[in-house]
């Protein structure tokens, strides 16, 4: 289980860094900042929710971090 946590944490971190760098270059290249912010927030929240839901299958304790339901 710990290997799953480690692997998916690395995947999440690398994906987050990739999106951050890509969107940073996108901001410098294009001037459509509002569109960029909207797309960035959408992709980021989508990935976060996806990773969170995937991890919550294996780690029920992980749900405590965001509060009780």
Explain what this protein looks like in three dimensions.
The chain crosses the membrane at residues 6-25, 37-55. Keywords: Membrane, Transmembrane, Transmembrane helix. With 69 residues, the protein is an all-alpha fold. The chain has one domain (2-66). 78% of the residues lie in helices and 0% in strands. It has helices at residues 2-29, 33-58. Helix 1 (2-29) packs antiparallel against helix 2 (33-58).
| Helix content, binned percent | over 70%
**Shape field:** elongated
Sheet/helix structural class: mainly alpha
The helix/strand series, from N terminus to C terminus, equals HH
Main sheet specs = none
Spatial gap, N to C terminus:
24 Å
How many distinct beta strands? 0
Strand content: under 5%
Gyration radius (Cα, Å) is 15 Å
Q: Runs with pLDDT <50, length 5+?
A: 62-69
Number of domains: 1
The number of helical elements comes to 2
């Amino acid at each position: 289980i710990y290997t799953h946590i480690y692997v998916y944490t690395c995947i999440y971190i690398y994906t987050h860094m990739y999106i951050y760098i890509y969107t940073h270059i996108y901001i410098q290249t294009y001037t459509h900042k509002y569109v960029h912010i909207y797309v960035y927030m959408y992709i980021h929240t989508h990935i976060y929710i996806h990773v969170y839901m995937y991890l919550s299958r294996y780690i029920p304790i992980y749900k405590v971090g965001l509060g009780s339901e």
